[in-house]
């Protein structure tokens, strides 16, 4: 997913968790993103709004130290972060420069490993917990225009499995949620996005668009004790599109 897709899924997840009474902390990377995050947080059970660049070790450690002071421990975390330069999503993947590859990998994949590692002590204070990240079908199949982001998502999904194995003995579960395309104003600016939505409507088993609330409810399941025996998995929420060969 690009631009508005990852953010829209994150909003749906935050809303579903809040509706069930969860106390939330929302983070933003820079002042450019702060207004939107604060607007969302004002509607979510007095959510904490904190600045944190997940690509910086010290920032993540400071975030966890603050949450430890406020809450003691945590029960779940949701990683809804991805980025690649627009020029690295054009043309073919083979032309991706190392700088673009390293950036996409760092922000879209390694930031999850960093976040889970630093959050582990807070999970342990509550006897375990659940970490969820957002992936996309392009991490498993070639999708035109997804390019280096698809490679980053593949690394992210592999990280989910290795983290699940490492942290399972601490009763910390790690999973990915792979959502289908969601129609947003930002997403509609993506080249050929309308064709992708049309393809899903016509071919996905459920023959309809995906609602962000459906992504949120799936994440709610993964964050809750209802999924207490589920770890190391990629859960597709895409109206069934991912099962098709076309």
Can you walk through the features of this model?
The protein is of the alpha/beta class and 246 residues long. It has a single domain (4-240), classed as NAD(P)-binding Rossmann-like Domain (Rossmann fold, 3-Layer(aba) Sandwich), CATH 3.40.50. Helix content is 46%, strand content 13%. The chain contains 7 helices and 6 strands, in the order αβαβαβαβαβααβ. The strands form 2 sheets. Strands 3-4-5-6 form a 4-stranded parallel sheet, with helices on both faces. A two-stranded parallel ribbon has the order 1-2. Helix 5 (147-167) links the parallel strand 4 and strand 5 (172-179). Helix 1 crosses helix 7, helix 3 (57-71) packs parallel to helix 4 (98-125) and helix 4 packs parallel to helix 5.
SSE blueprint and pairings:
Blueprint: H1 4-19, E1 25-28, H2 31-41, E2 48-51, H3 57-71, E3 76-79, H4 98-125, E4 129-135, H5 147-167, E5 172-179, H6 193-203, H7 212-223, E6 234-237
Parallel strand pairs: 1-2, 3-4, 4-5, 5-6
Helix pairs in contact: 1-7, 3-4, 4-5
Considering the chains and any ligands shown, give keywords for the structure.
246 residues; alpha/beta; Rossmann fold; four-stranded parallel beta sheet; two-stranded parallel ribbon; 7 helices; 6 strands; 46% helix; globular
């Amino acid at each position: 997913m690009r631009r508005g897709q990852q953010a829209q899924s994150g909003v749906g997840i935050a809303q579903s968790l809040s509706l069930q009474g969860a106390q939330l902390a929302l983070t933003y990377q820079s002042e450019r993103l702060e207004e939107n995050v604060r607007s969302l947080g004002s509607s979510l059970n007095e959510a904490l709004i904190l600045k944190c660049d997940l690509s910086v070790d010290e920032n993540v450690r400071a975030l966890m130290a603050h949450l430890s002071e406020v809450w003691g421990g945590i029960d779940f975390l949701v990683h809804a972060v991805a980025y690649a330069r627009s020029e690295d999503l054009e043309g073919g993947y083979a032309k991706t420069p190392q700088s673009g590859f390293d950036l996409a990998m760092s922000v879209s994949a390694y930031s999850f490993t960093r976040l889970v590692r630093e959050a582990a002590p807070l999970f342990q204070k509550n006897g375990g917990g659940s970490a969820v990240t957002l992936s996309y079908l392009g991490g498993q199949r070639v999708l035109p225009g997804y390019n280096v982001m698809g490679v980053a998502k593949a690394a992210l999904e592999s990280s989910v499995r290795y983290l699940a194995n490492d942290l399972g003995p601490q009763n910390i579960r790690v999973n990915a949620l792979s959502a289908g395309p969601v129609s947003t104003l930002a997403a509609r600016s993506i080249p050929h996005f309308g064709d992708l939505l049309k393809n899903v409507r016509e071919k996905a088993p459920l023959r309809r668009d995906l609602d962000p609330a459906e992504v949120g409810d799936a994440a709610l399941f993964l964050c809750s004790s209802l999924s207490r025996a589920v770890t190391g998995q990629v859960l597709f929420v895409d109206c069934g599109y991912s099962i098709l060969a076309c």
